[in-house]
Amino acid sequence: MRKSGPLKAWDMLDEAFDIGRILAKDGVMTLPHDKVKEVTTFEIRKLNKQDKRSQVPLFLNGGGVMSLNNSTFLLLADDLHIDLPAPTEIATIDVKERTPLIDPWYVTSEQQAIAVAEHYHLFDRFYAETFRSLPSGRQRLHKEVGLCVGEGQTQRVTISGVQVEADALQIGEKSVLTVEAKLGADEMHAKQLFLPMHDALSRLKEEGSDLHVQPTVLVSRSEGIFDLYAFEFDDHERITSHRVTVAMRYELRNHVPAAPQHQTMRAEISANYEVPFPQADRLELVERTWRWLEDGMSKDFWVEEMEYAPRQFDYYVNALKWLRLATGPTSEPEVKSLAEVGSASFKEHVRAVLSTDSTFRSCFHLPKEEIRKQASIDLDERQDMSLTEVTRNRRALTVRSWLIALGLAR
Question: What percent of the chain stands above pLDDT 70?
Fold first, then answer.
């Protein structure tokens, strides 16, 4: 897979400043932004974005990058990423009434994930404590933070003035939760827990509060699945001293599937069978791709933002074309607005199109564990397409994922 823009820029910086060799020798290095700008015009903000290990330059050999202050990078030989494996403990919640403005089976942003968690009291259930939401947002780190780094963690540096943000803050009688929310992530950067924890600790100390600060991760896995992780840092001066103390998966069971809306049949409210049957599992990403294309974003932007292979972009654009929300070459598609196809919302349009397709329609309101098998059988029997077993199973998975996302499965 080709390198992204940030990785290419980091390669130029390694060539200019011998970063890999210095880190291998000392375990730590600082790099002023002024020096960076002498070598590359690439945005500092994007060079510092390393939420995933795949965004880390190979010459760091598993290490990572973060901000020391507003004018300097801190590069470390230590792995700064945290794994988020699927929890083995599972709790189920029966959802019998649909709540306006919240759809737990179709979460498209971190804030939506937090809203669902708050509505179904997931934080309360997880910690056996009653919480209420506090205002949160991006702000400067309240107090300087000392950090032990380098070979044997014997050097000490000071982090100051950097931006810090908790996706949510929850306060209870005993604890304050600093929450980092993710969509489908299996890893994250440790700074996203370490810095909000320190920021909250310093603010509480200043107020004379002895509340425990609890770093927490919330991951929406789609299909009504939400994973919660409680973390502790055994040494508050070592960013790599993190550990999971408890993890739990919450599965929201949908007992009120919404029926598709019946609409007058029009050319736009039907599937476009001149393009392949959809093979794009994440319906929320289909919608996001459509909105990005409306805003003029390119294939290159999509590939870099999602860190997917370029062919995945083609799959998602073909899904939009199948839904009649895009036309033209897959490499440079033109999208249609909802007004052009006569729909009030993206989900309404998708539901209407799916109700015209025999495979999707045959799976409406089936238990979610039965959908993939039924869809695979139906696809195998269709006369309008010939699919290999592997492709048929992949497209059956799309049927399952879309119906669960739309609340059309049990």
Answer: 94
Q: Does one domain contain both 100 and 240? A: yes
Q: What are phi and psi of 140, to 5 degrees?
A: -75, 145
Mean confidence (pLDDT) of the chain: 88
pTM summary value: 0.71
State whether 195 and 238 are in the same domain: yes
- Count Cβ atoms within 10 A of the Cβ of residue 83 and give its class: 0-12 exposed, 13-18 middle, 19 or more buried: exposed
CA–CA separation, 65 and 317 (whole Å): 34
The answer to whether residues 50 and 189 touch, using CB atoms and an 8 Å cutoff, is: yes
Other CB atoms within 10 Å distance of the CB of residue 311: 9
CA 161 to chain centre: 27
Residue 332 per-residue DSSP state: S
Q: 31, 73 in Cβ contact below 8 A?
A: yes
Residue 145 has φ and ψ, to the nearest 5°, of: -120, 125
Reading the block at residue 273, the tokens are 């069978």
Range of the domain at 388: 283-405
Structure tokens at 308: 């997917």
Using CA atoms, how far apart are residues 84 and 229, in angstroms rounded to an integer? 8
Residue 61 lies in a domain: yes
Q: Would you call 32 helix, strand, or coil by DSSP?
A: strand
CATH, residue 191: 3.40.1350.10
Same domain for 167 and 113: yes
| Domain membership flag for residue 225 | yes
pLDDT in tens, 61-71: 888 999 999 99
Non-local (6+) Cβ contacts of 400 within 8 A are 363, 368, 371, 372, 375, 409
DSSP state of 94: E
Quick: pLDDT tens for 92-149. 998 877 666 777 877 778 888 999 999 999 999 999 999 999 988 889 999 999 999 8
From the list 339, 346, 369, the residue with the least C-alpha distance to 354 is 346
Specify whether 95 is located in the same domain as 202: yes
Strands (E), 9-104: 28-32, 64-69, 72-76, 81-83, 90-95
Within a 10 A sphere around the Cβ of 327, how many other Cβ atoms? 13
**Total number of domains in the chain:** 3
d(CA 185, CA 226): 11
> How far apart, in whole angstroms, are the C-alpha atoms of residue 23 and residue 10?
14
Beta strands in 150-203 (DSSP E): 155-159, 163-165, 168-171, 175-183, 187-189
